[in-house]
């Protein structure tokens, strides 16, 4: 039961480049690098689940009539991940590093177009 003083929170689960994120309004999240300039606005229509606080709508595979408008905050590189392989008694060692290119997005609004 929802108390009358409780604020209704709208959220969605969206999919970007194979990754899923649960976001609400004014949420910032990091995803793999997108081809969009910093400061530009993008629309995401691959919504898997939509909740307006009263009801939940699950898509099969996507919810129709819902889109999320996000601003591109910045492009950056993630933490360095080290992969180290070695074989004992053979003096064989390999060290490799990787930094993922990422984009930070901020959700401006969740729109229902029904």
From TrEMBL:
Recorded GO MF terms: rRNA binding; structural constituent of ribosome
Keywords from the UniProt entry: Ribonucleoprotein, Ribosomal protein, RNA-binding, rRNA-binding
Single biological process term from Gene Ontology: translation
GO cellular component: cytoplasm; ribonucleoprotein complex; ribosome
TM stretches of this protein: none
Region: Disordered, residue numbers: 87-114
Subunit structure: Part of the 50S ribosomal subunit. Contacts protein L20.
Family: Belongs to the bacterial ribosomal protein bL21 family.
Stated name of the protein: Large ribosomal subunit protein bL21
Gene of this entry: rplU
């Amino acid at each position: 039961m929802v108390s009358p003083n409780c604020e209704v929170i709208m959220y969605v689960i969206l999919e970007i480049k194979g990754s899923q994120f649960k976001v609400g309004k004014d949420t910032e999240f990091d995803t793999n690098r997108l081809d969009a300039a910093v400061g530009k606005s993008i629309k995401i229509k691959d919504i898997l689940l939509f909740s307006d606080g009263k009801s939940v709508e699950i898509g099969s595979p996507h919810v129709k009539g819902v889109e999320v408008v996000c601003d591109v905050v910045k492009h950056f590189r993630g933490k360095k991940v080290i992969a180290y392989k070695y074989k004992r008694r053979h003096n064989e060692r390999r060290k490799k590093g990787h930094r993922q290119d990422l984009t930070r997005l901020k959700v401006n609004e969740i729109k229902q177009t029904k």
